[in-house]
């Protein structure tokens, strides 16, 4: 018989089972709380077992009394708060408090549990159905009432900064006292009034009046401009997410053909924060080799006494971390960017990393700009599935219904993993010097597809001559992160790290 089992048997019964052990003499063992009587062989007697049981029972009773006290405190606080709330809110608040108190006291009731789960689903899950409905049906109309309405006479159009599939981007200046800026040299005061203007391309497509209310996929450049304006406006209403994107200031339709503006064209306006992107840094357009050209901007100083490879790793780690934070915050609203790439990552003079260009973004909380089987993408940064949700997903319903089911759709389809793959390609492009050119990146994607998106196989067969020193530092932490971002999803739409998961990877631990 095992000693543990034997020691729980009363002495009279123990003597019947094993007389030899029952006759063992009683000794005393020293303990930090005094002397404890034990049998030879260190087997406790029945009195010790009873004493231990009483002690455990006392602890359990104490815990139960503690939970009961917490439960009563919740009830009391709920009733006190309910006395100060308006009558439509008082009764529900008290009821929820009672439900929570019952659970804390380990006396749950099914109606109360279901009510609390419903509150958790509607308010606390991301993307939040409540916040989605509130934003779309209340805050969107309100923001349109209070946003500034620009006119052609309010702005001076200057140099073109870039162009894309749906529009052209210009530098502009807000006019002061209706006077346009003349000349190329700007004063400090004039520089503070600079803005970024995006002219939405005219492609002859018809702009549907109910496009936003229907919550459907944008058709043509005009509706894409409307969708981007909606995305930027929604982001600006979240104090945390707005820190990670360019500051949006509104849209307008040109009321005259003057100064480079054409009457009837659609324009979007942002605060001018920088004209430098990560793409410029990768190409060497910022006056030095990448990533060294960003050291002072991103890290705030130049560490000349530190090993160059360690410095480069620190810069890349910092840039990628800030990109992932921005992506994670966007996803908390239910917005998937779908076009994360160096040209859409702004680097400000203060070292901030901001994501721009939301023309391809989809709001999967309200279903805006989403349709199964369709999507915008850059093949150099797009994952193999090419769509944010599987093709079998139904078409998004009207925004209110889409918001209600969005947490379920998000958990089942994991659309956030689309942007996570793009971040993985971004890591490879920054860390592997041979991949920083656009042509090399296209070859990388082709080779990766040939290897069925197995990054390790690609390295062994096609990339074995490349420089992976940065990714191989710290026990190949960077390479491990890249492999977990650049891969296929599995049958349940998992198998790839999300932005939030990636931020917890050991690659971001400090290197001493």
UniProtKB/TrEMBL annotation:
The Protein kinase domain, residue ranges: 155-508
InterPro entries associated with the record: Kinase-like_dom_sf, Prot_kinase_dom, Ser/Thr_kinase_AS
Signal sequence coordinates: none
Name listed for the protein in its UniProt record: G4688 protein
């Amino acid at each position: 018989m095992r000693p543990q089992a034997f020691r729980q048997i009363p002495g009279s019964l123990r003597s019947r089972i094993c007389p030899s052990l029952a006759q063992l003499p009683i000794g005393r063992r020293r303990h930090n709380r005094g002397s404890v009587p034990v049998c030879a062989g260190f087997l406790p007697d029945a009195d010790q077992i009873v004493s231990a049981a009483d002690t455990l029972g006392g602890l359990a009773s104490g815990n139960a009394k503690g939970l009961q006290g917490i439960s009563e405190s919740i009830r009391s606080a709920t009733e006190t708060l309910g006395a100060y709330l308006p009558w439509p809110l008082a009764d529900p608040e008290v009821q929820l408090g009672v439900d929570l108190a019952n659970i804390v006291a380990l006396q749950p009731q099914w109606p109360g549990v279901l009510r609390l789960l419903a509150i958790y689903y509607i308010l606390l899950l991301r993307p939040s159905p409540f916040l989605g409905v509130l934003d779309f049906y209340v805050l969107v109309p309100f923001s349109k009432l209070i946003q500034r309405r620009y006119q052609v006479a309010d702005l001076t159009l200057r140099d073109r900064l870039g162009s894309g599939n749906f529009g052209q981007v210009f530098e502009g200046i807000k006019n002061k006292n209706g006077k346009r800026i003349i000349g190329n040299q700007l004063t400090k005061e004039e520089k503070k009034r600079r803005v970024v203007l995006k002219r939405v391309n005219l492609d002859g497509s018809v702009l549907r009046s109910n496009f936003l209310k229907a919550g459907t996929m944008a058709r043509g450049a005009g509706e894409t401009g409307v969708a981007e304006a909606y995305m930027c406006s929604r982001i600006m209403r979240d104090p945390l997410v707005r820190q990670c994107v360019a500051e949006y200031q509104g849209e307008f339709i040109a009321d005259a053909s003057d100064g480079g503006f054409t009457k009837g064209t659609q324009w979007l306006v942002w605060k001018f924060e920088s004209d430098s992107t990560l793409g410029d840094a990768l190409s060497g357009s910022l006056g030095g080799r990448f990533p060294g050209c960003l050291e002072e901007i991103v890290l705030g100083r130049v560490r000349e006494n530190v090993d160059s490879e360690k410095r480069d790793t620190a810069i890349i780690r910092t840039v990628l971390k800030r990109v992932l934070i921005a992506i994670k915050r966007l996803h908390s609203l239910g917005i998937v960017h779908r076009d994360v790439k160096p040209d859409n990552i702004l680097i400000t003079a203060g070292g901030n990393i901001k994501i721009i260009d939301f023309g391809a973004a989809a709001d999967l909380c309200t279903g805006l700009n989403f349709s199964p089987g369709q999507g915008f993408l850059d093949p150099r940064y797009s994952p193999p599935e090419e769509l944010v949700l599987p093709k079998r997903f139904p078409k998004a319903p009207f925004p209110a219904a889409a918001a209600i089911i969005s947490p379920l759709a998000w958990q089942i389809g994991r659309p956030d993993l689309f942007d996570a793959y793009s971040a993985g390609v971004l890591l490879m492009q920054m860390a592997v010097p041979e991949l920083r050119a656009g042509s090399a990146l296209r070859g990388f994607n082709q080779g990766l597809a040939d290897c069925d998106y197995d990054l390790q196989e690609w390295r062994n067969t096609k990339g074995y001559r490349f420089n992976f020193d940065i990714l191989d530092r710290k026990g190949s932490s960077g390479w491990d992160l890249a492999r977990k971002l650049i891969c296929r999803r599995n049958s349940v739409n998992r198998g790839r790290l999300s932005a939030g998961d990636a931020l917890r990877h050991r690659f971001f631990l400090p290197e001493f």
